[in-house]
Automatic annotation (TrEMBL):
Its EC number is 3.5.4.3. Pathway: Purine metabolism; guanine degradation; xanthine from guanine: step 1/1. InterPro entries: Amidohydro-rel, Guanine_deaminase, Metal-dep_hydrolase_composite, Metal_Hydrolase, Metallo-dep_hydrolases. Belongs to the metallo-dependent hydrolases superfamily. ATZ/TRZ family. GO terms for molecular function: guanine deaminase activity. Its cofactor is Zn(2+). The lineage of its organism: Bacteria, Pseudomonadati, Pseudomonadota, Gammaproteobacteria, Pseudomonadales. It comes from the Bacteria. The gene is guaD. This is Guanine deaminase.
Length: 445
């Protein structure tokens, strides 16, 4: 083992592949060390293994952090969230279209102010770290400066973000609308500035069909075709009113999905948020094109949008990621998001195992974002973006922890009862960027 290695001791869990959704994980899909060691060198994972076996092999000067029974996992990844919507969270009483008009658009208008954008982007990044989220696919606003603000804040922490300027040229206040041409030019300039600068990736971001003219979608599609390594993100089939309105706006298209298809916006680089009210033809087209869905359970229940059909998506071969959709979502915590996903599945007569849930939040989401060569698990050479989970972080978790006898029970307890308090620490490329201020419980004496 090389000099300069750093060692973190705790329980270590990560996924090597999709564990499936049966009560036992698919063979070879997980690696777990009850008393493990995560070795970091130059910001990357050097090795994971059994502490007893690895400790004698460490060079003498190795810095060893003992996380005292904490569970080390790859950092969570959020495949859909809105940086400018933090204060839009917990807005009372509306469904999607009224929520956009009454709460979201007025708030996003404030991002014309650069300083406001910077403050909010910093706060967003800090909050992600405090919730154990180390990477994500993020909407900014239509103001280019909001994208600079987000990437600058992410870069400052070494975080790998994918994000873009919202393209929207109609059906919104003129404090937010761009034009087809300006949205293309601004997106291209931001793409040239930020795409592949360090760990940052630009993302082409038409808000959704209803706030884009056909010309704007056409140009967004052209931009995507010209940059085949750039992701595309938008919203799709979230709410009945939205779907009806989209049909009226694009009467020549055979379905909502066909709008995006027509303008060249589907493909393996595309992440569609929601995808609730869809049919088998849609699923087949998603599978054919490799387009992905970001499942946003806390948003879908909060806004009364509907219950995503995870089992049908999986069996049609559609790649699905898990996402907070803050500020429609009610928590930045991927643990809380897993809990809500489980409940949505139950209401659909389905289930979501803790294996599948933790897979989705880590390696599964990395795959959705084409980042699995960089993050999502502890394979040697991955960036050492990791979190330390505290299985007795809150009074409730601590109450239940002694009853959890298996790893599956421990994980399920964390995802159902856990929240940001369960994040003891968050590291980016091996550097601790967040540490919970105080123990949730007094130290036992
Ligand atoms: N559809 C169009 N814009 C938005 C948004 O900001 N949030 C959600 N949840 N859906 C949208
Ligand atoms: Zn959204």
């Amino acid at each position: 083992l090389p000099e300069g290695i750093e060692a973190h001791r705790g329980a270590v869990l990560h996924f090597l592949d999709d564990p499936g959704n049966d009560s036992d994980p698919a063979s070879g899909s997980i690696e777990y060390f009850e008393d493990g060691l995560l070795l970091v060198h130059d910001g990357k994972v050097a090795m994971v293994g059994d502490a007893e076996a690895l400790l004698p092999r460490l060079p003498n000067a190795t810095r060893l952090t003992d996380w005292d029974g904490g569970l080390l996992m790859p950092g969570f990844i959020d495949t859909h969230a809105h940086m400018p919507q933090l204060p839009v969270m917990a807005s009372y009483g509306t469904q999607l279209l009224d929520w956009l008009e009454n709460y979201t658009f007025p708030h996003e208008s404030r991002f014309a102010d650069r300083d406001w954008a910077r403050t909010q982007a910093d706060q967003f990044i800090q909050l992600l770290l405090a919730h154990g989220t180390t990477s994500g696919l993020i909407f900014c606003t239509s103001h280019p400066a909001s994208v600079d603000a987000l990437f600058e804040a992410a870069e400052h922490q070494g975080m790998a973000m994918s994000a873009g300027k919202v393209m929207m040229d109609r059906h919104a206040p003129d404090t937010l609308t761009d034009t087809a041409r300006s949205s293309y030019d601004d997106s291209l300039a931001l793409l040239e500035k930020w795409h592949n600068r360090g760990r940052q990736r630009y993302t082409i971001t038409p808000r959704f069909a209803a706030t884009s003219s056909p010309e704007q979608l056409e140009l967004a599609g052209q931009l995507a075709q010209a940059h085949p390594d750039v992701l595309v993100q938008t919203h799709w089939a979230e709410n009945e009113g939205e779907i009806q309105w989209t049909r009226e706006l694009f009467p020549d298209r055979s379905s909502y999905l066909d709008v995006y298809d027509h303008y060249g916006l589907l493909g393996a680089n595309t992440v569609l948020a929601h995808g609730i009210h869809i049919d088998d033809r849609d699923r087949q087209r998603l599978a054919e094109t490799g387009s992905r869905i970001a499942f946003c359970p806390t948003s879908n229940t909060f806004l009364g949008s509907g219950l995503f059909d995870l089992a049908s998506a999986r069996s049609a071969g559609v790649k699905v990621g898990l996402a907070s959709d803050v500020g429609g979502g009610t928590s930045l915590s991927m643990l809380a998001t897993m809990a809500e996903a489980y409940k949505v599945c139950r209401l659909r007569g389905q289930t979501l195992t803790p294996w599948q849930a933790f897979y989705l939040a880590t390696l599964g989401n990395a795959r959705v974002l084409h980042r699995d060569q960089e993050m999502g698990n502890f394979r040697t050479g991955q960036q050492a973006d990791f979190i330390v989970l505290d299985q007795s972080a809150s009074p409730l978790l601590a109450m239940k922890a002694p009853y959890c006898q298996t790893l599956a029970e421990t994980l399920f307890n964390l995802m159902i009862l856990g929240d940001d308090r369960a994040i003891a620490a968050t590291a980016i490329s091996g550097t601790i960027r967040y540490r919970r201020a105080t123990a949730a419980l007094p130290e036992s004496s």
